[in-house]
Amino acid sequence: MALIPCQVLRVAILLSYCSILCNYKAIEMPAHKTYGGSWKFLTFIDLVIQAVFFGICVLTDLSSLLTRGSSNQEQERQLKKLISLRDWMLAVLAFPVGVFVVTVFWSIYIYDREMVYPKLLDNFIPAWLNHGMHTTVLPFILIEMRTSHHQYPSRSCGLAAVCTFAVGYILWVCWVHHVTGIWVYPLLEHIGPGAKITFFGIATVLMNLLYLLGEVLNNYIWDTQRSMEECKERPKSE
């Protein structure tokens, strides 16, 4: 029996994301008042994705609890739709985008923080909030993947959806630059047009690879657990 029920964990994670979002939006930063506001940053978009995803998880848990033992087929159909939405969102958005943000942010930060998170931001964003946006996303999504099995969509549909999101965000970043003359991330100010295209291409490929990683990890976790349960149920040979 789990020390903490997965339903309680999901509520706690959802509340933590709500707190992070509220604290982030309360910060008076110049970048928040320019074109695109917070929505031009992938970190903020990811926080919204994670909050919505865990909100759907909590809603699914509540619906499952309310329909338990019920013979109402319509309620069961609605619950299945909710579960399908939850699984699709983890596969296509929550896992690949969340892991991408954590991996790319800290990789660039370690190399040269001024390219992604200038030291000036320390005056606005406390360290705990920085980690809430760029670190805890990874353990939270891994906890969710470990506590519940998620049905992934077909690989072609999943990869197409991930590509659509990645290309859409890249076009949004380019549009913000077109309107303001300023790139969202300092890194893009220091590289040429060819390098930008390469960078955007690598980012899109990486996000697709993270989708595949999530699919493999999900299958590995639950295939391993299923095998362990079968071993426990198998009668001991005399």
Radius of gyration (CA) equals 20 Å
Number of helical segments with 4 or more residues: 7
List the secondary-structure elements in sequence, H or E: HHHHHHH
Low-confidence stretches: none
**Please, what is the oligomeric state?**
single chain
InterPro entries: ADTRP_AIG1
Protein name: Androgen induced 1
Keywords: Membrane, Transmembrane, Transmembrane helix
Family: Belongs to the AIG1 family.
Give a written overview of the molecule.
With 238 residues, the chain is mainly alpha-helical. The protein has one domain. Helices cover 72% and strands 0% of the residues. The chain is built from seven helices and no strands. Helix 2 runs antiparallel to helix 3, helix 3 (73-112) runs antiparallel to helix 5 and helix 6 (155-180) packs antiparallel against helix 7 (193-233). It is globular, with a radius of gyration of 20 Å. It starts with 5 loop residues before the first helix and ends in a 5-residue tail after the last helix. The model has no long low-confidence stretch (mean pLDDT 90).
Short description:
The protein has one domain.
Describe the structure using short key phrases:
238 residues, mainly alpha, 72% helix, 0% strand, globular
Write the SSE topology.
Layout: H1 6-25, H2 42-67, H3 73-112, H4 127-134, H5 137-147, H6 155-180, H7 193-233
